[in-house]
Amino acid sequence: MDAVEPDENPSLIRLFESAELSAFLRGTSRYFLETLPEIGRTDADVQEMGETLRDWGREVSGADESAIHAHFAQAFEVYLLEGEAPSVALRTVFEHFAEWLLHVYGALRGLDLTLSPDIRDVLLRMLATHAAIEEARDDMSAGMLFTGGKRAGLSADEHRRLRRLHEEADDEAHQKLRRQVMKPIFLARQDWYRKERETVKAISTRSLQAVPIYQAIRALRFGTDFDGKPVGRIKLDRGILERDFGLKPLSSKADGGEDEQDHAHAFAGREGIHPDIAAGMYGFDSGRTFLQALVRARPIELAIELLTERTMVERHGDLLLDGQLEEEALKALHGDKRRAFLLAELNALSKLSGGEATTRYEVEGNVHRLFSALKVSSATDSDRHLAAERKGAAEAAGAFSKDDLSQAAEAKRRQLMACHFYMAASAKAEELEALIDRMATLDAMDDERADGAEADDRQAVRALAAKFGLASKPVRFDMDGWLEQMKEDDLVL
Fold this sequence. Notes:
single chain; 2 strands; extended
């Protein structure tokens, strides 16, 4: 990808300083499409992308250039936030555009850009996605074996196919993870989400208004409670604050100070009351404790927004905040395209070493047979299979560097199998976690209220789950009697 010189592209700077995301994408996509021949990875790639765009353009706009630009921007915005592209071929173009956007943003970050919050959030989430995938790929040693001078024996078309599969695997990983990372932005556009957030904000407001320190700040500032009822406005004694508690007066940068927002001094006066008295009025055990809470308290408006956002994140998730970004990046790297690439590398090594080709169906059949025989502890241990995959990748690279193609093929086969096992184990672990959550729900139900056939069935499930440590044993439940009844009803053999 060609370098972008910000100083020579003032138009790019203006585009990045757009007020709205849609306008930003319209402008940058137009710039990208007009300069596409100059920024491609290879001439062949650029030519193919151009053909894809022309075919798509004729379908959506009759090849009108301005209409193509508008449709492209709209389609990319959907792809960015939802992960859906009009076609597989266009997804490749979108990934090139996303890569180009990050490249340009990286070149411009050193400048004093004025980005809107929406655009900044999108770009930072794109950067976080890219960084997480790159880190996971490095961790997995997920690069190509056949690079540079290590291409002997492969035709140009074979090598291009391998390279294309590798790029598609990376694109797939970026797309999968980006969709998850962008989820909060997508949700924020949904009516149901906005309504839910308003409800959560109302609850957060009531909750924080009941906090003593905010009740105190309200009374000190306005002389009323949050319902507007007069409670008597008081002041804290400024002299006592400075002499006994060491609190400095408010200062600002204009006065040569540090712009301290000290609630205590904000509500101080010459003839105010002692902080100990105020502390007793608002339920604090001492004046010092009261003043510490007063100084540290965030503005209630900010506190409400933070609590609201935290609650929404807890309900709906945010990969940038919940600590799951690294794990999800690894999962994204184990998609269908990556497994196809590893299989292609294996067959290339097998061909060059005189071995036989392996089909996808053979691999999947072996995976199913071997994985089904694993114990639950092994079948859900994704870390174990991830370590095996790393080891296979390292051994394949080591053997390949020594031109031991036969050993490289065997190691690549182990890497491929471990890749399949990792995804299967991750899926099984999620199923087990859901089952445990379900058992916890059953476990929480009141045995004393259990009644009827449905309740008996529920307790039977609990009894069986208890044998595997997934739930507690139900109280006073006759498992043998339940089985006999099921036999009489011809429900079990």
